Automatic annotation (TrEMBL):
The gene is trmD. InterPro entries: Alpha/beta_knot_MTases, tRNA_m1G_MeTrfase_C_sf, tRNA_m1G_MeTrfase_TrmD, tRNA_m1G_MTases_N, tRNA_MeTrfase_TRMD/TRM10. The keyword Cell inner membrane does not apply. Its EC number is 2.1.1.228. The keyword Magnesium does not apply. Residues 1-235 form the tRNA methyltransferase TRMD/TRM10-type domain. Keywords: Cytoplasm, Methyltransferase, S-adenosyl-L-methionine, Transferase, tRNA processing. Coiled coil: none annotated. This is tRNA (guanine-N(1)-)-methyltransferase.
Length: 267
């Protein structure tokens, strides 16, 4: 995968050189480039923003530096790729965007080229987003219902969520199938040695060696944790996602939903 990130604070993206993602970059599994937007400015002050039309607080990022940066990155990618399968995806972190989810991360992990535009101040001139649709598949994406100072933190979140799903980056691929949100449920609690720590014991079932029973216990724990912490995820499960034991576990928490009746599913 090719991944380009544009920011006026490229040093903010330094953590991408660490851990599994950093190793993937060094091994060539991920072609990562971080760009300074100011490299596409042409005045002595390297200006990237101006006051908003219509008045109001804050500053808006200028269209032209973004257009030049995106054009150069797009042209370079086309030159390097003999026949790209699809248009690059341009991700614009924004509290006004669609929610970033595990499903989206999985879909993006299969794309050839991602570009992330890290806005600042009051955001990027809307005309950039409209114009970029000619070259990119543009998506405004939100990592949560809150406001950050810029898109760099969101970019780090999205890159880690996507990159770890690229084949070969995670050492044990099976670990990806047991994570929170993988099938609509949160992950079960985990334990390691010692078996007793400060008077607290590891659940006995995990020491039994009965793998079928352990699998069922973990499923029960996922259901309980999800019902307690994220009941909205339980409500979103389709009828075919719950077996009779699942329903019994949820009933213990008064969350066995009648509207998840046979043959009916939630959006």
């Amino acid at each position: 995968m090719r991944l380009d990130v544009i920011s006026i604070f490229p040093e903010y993206l330094a953590p991408l050189q660490l851990s599994l993602i950093g190793r993937a970059v060094r091994d060539g599994a991920l072609d990562l480039a971080v760009h300074d937007l100011r490299d596409w400015t042409h005045d002595r002050h390297r200006t990237v923003d101006d006051t908003p039309y219509g008045g109001g607080a804050g500053m808006v990022m200028l269209a032209e530096p973004w257009a030049e940066a995106l054009t150069e990155i797009s042209d370079r990618a086309e030159e390097d790729a003999e026949a790209p399968a699809d248009r690059p995806v341009l991700l614009v972190p924004s509290p006004a965007g669609i929610p970033f989810t595990q499903r989206m991360a999985e879909e993006l992990a299969g794309r050839e080229h991602l570009v992330i535009a890290c806005g600042r101040y009051e955001g990027i001139d809307q005309r950039v987003v409209d114009w970029a649709d000619e070259r990119f598949e543009v998506r405004l994406v939100s990592i949560g219902d809150y406001v950050l100072n810029g898109g760099e933190v969101a970019a780090l979140v999205m890159i880690e969520a996507v990159a770890r799903l690229i084949p070969g980056i995670i050492g044990n691929p099976e670990s990806l199938t047991e994570e929170s949100h993988e099938d609509g449920l949160l992950e079960y609690p985990v334990y390691t040695k010692p078996a007793v720590w400060r008077g607290r014991e590891v659940p006995e079932i995990l020491l039994s060696g009965n793998h079928a029973a352990i699998d069922r216990w973990r499923r029960d724990q996922r259901l309980k944790r999800t019902a307690q912490v994220r009941p909205d995820l339980i409500a979103a499960l389709g009828a075919d996602a719950l077996d009779p034991r699942d329903r019994a576990v949820l009933a213990e928490h008064e969350l066995d939903r009648a509207d998840l009746s046979e043959g009916e599913s939630k959006p």
